[in-house]
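User: Reviewer 2 asked us to show a designed sequence for the structure in our supplementary figure. I'm pasting the C-alpha cells here. Could you produce the per-position amino acids so we can include them in the response letter?
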C-alpha cells in the first residue's frame, strides 16, 4: 500500500527538522579577533574582537579583553561603538619598548565595554587599532570575559594546543606571520642612464617627432593640391566637350 500524502508530508517534515538540528547542534561560536593573522611587521592595523551572544534568553552586557603581559602590544586606540562605553586600563612596563617615535613605557592591559547589549543570536564587533605588534613571538593570545544579563560570565581564556581538540572556551588568538617581503628576493637595482645618453635619446626622439610631423603636413599639402588639380582638369575637359559639340 502506498503511503498517503499526509504520511509522506509528516515524514518529510520530521526529516527536515532532524536535519536542522544536526546542522545547528554542532555549531558553536566563540570570541575571536578579526582578522586572525597578520604580518609581524604590520603597523597601524585595525582589528575587531567579534563577540557573539550564545545565550538563548540573556543578552551580553559587558565585554572585557585582557592584553598579554609577556608580549605587550605597544599602543592601541579604541573605536567608539554606538551604545557602548569603553574603558582602557594601562600598565607600566619594567623595560620600555624602543620605537622610532621614542620609548613606550605604558601599554594597554585591558579594555572593557559596558552599557550596550548584544541580543541573543547576534554578534558585535569591538574595533581596536594597534599602532604596532609585539616582537619575539608568532602569536598574541588575548583573554576575553563575556558577561550576560542574567549574571552568567563566560571566560574565553583557554589556549589551544597543536594536535589536540579545540578547548571549550578558546581564547582569541592573533597569529603573526612572516614579515611582509622577508622571503621575497631583493629587486636588482635599476641602472641609471648616463645624462649624455639621456640627452641624445631625447634629441633623437624630438628629431623623429619633428620628421613625422613634417611628413604628415607634406602629405596633407600634396593631397590638397592633387584635389585642386583634379577639379581644374575636370572643368577643362567639360569645356572642350562643349566646344566640340557646338562646332
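Assistant: Here is a per-position design you can include in the supplement:
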Amino acid at each position: 500500500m502506498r503511503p498517503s500524502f499526509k504520511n509522506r508530508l509528516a515524514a518529510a517534515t520530521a526529516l527536515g527538522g532532524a536535519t536542522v538540528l544536526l546542522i545547528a547542534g554542532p555549531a558553536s561560536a566563540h570570541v575571536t579577533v578579526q582578522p586572525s593573522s597578520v604580518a609581524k611587521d604590520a603597523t597601524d592595523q585595525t582589528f575587531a574582537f567579534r563577540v557573539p551572544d550564545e545565550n538563548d534568553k540573556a543578552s551580553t552586557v559587558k565585554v572585557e579583553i585582557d592584553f598579554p603581559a609577556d608580549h605587550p602590544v605597544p599602543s592601541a586606540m579604541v573605536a567608539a561603538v554606538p551604545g557602548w562605553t569603553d574603558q582602557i586600563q594601562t600598565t607600566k612596563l619594567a623595560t620600555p619598548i624602543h620605537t622610532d617615535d621614542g620609548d613606550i613605557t605604558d601599554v594597554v592591559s585591558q579594555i572593557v565595554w559596558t552599557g550596550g547589549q548584544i541580543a541573543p543570536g547576534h554578534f558585535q564587533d569591538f574595533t581596536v587599532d594597534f599602532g604596532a605588534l609585539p616582537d619575539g613571538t608568532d602569536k598574541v593570545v588575548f583573554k576575553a570575559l563575556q558577561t550576560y544579563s542574567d549574571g552568567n560570565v563566560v571566560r574565553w581564556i583557554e589556549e589551544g594546543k597543536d594536535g589536540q581538540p579545540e578547548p571549550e572556551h578558546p581564547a582569541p588568538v592573533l597569529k603573526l606571520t612572516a614579515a611582509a617581503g622577508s622571503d621575497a628576493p631583493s629587486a636588482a637595482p635599476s641602472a641609471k642612464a648616463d645624462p649624455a645618453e639621456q640627452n641624445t635619446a631625447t634629441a633623437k626622439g624630438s628629431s623623429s617627432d619633428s620628421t613625422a610631423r613634417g611628413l604628415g603636413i607634406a602629405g596633407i599639402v600634396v593631397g590638397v593640391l592633387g584635389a585642386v588639380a583634379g577639379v581644374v582638369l575636370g572643368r577643362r575637359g567639360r569645356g572642350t566637350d562643349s566646344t566640340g559639340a557646338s562646332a
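For the response letter, you might also mention the following. DSSP finds two helices and twelve strands in the chain. The radius of gyration is 39 Å.
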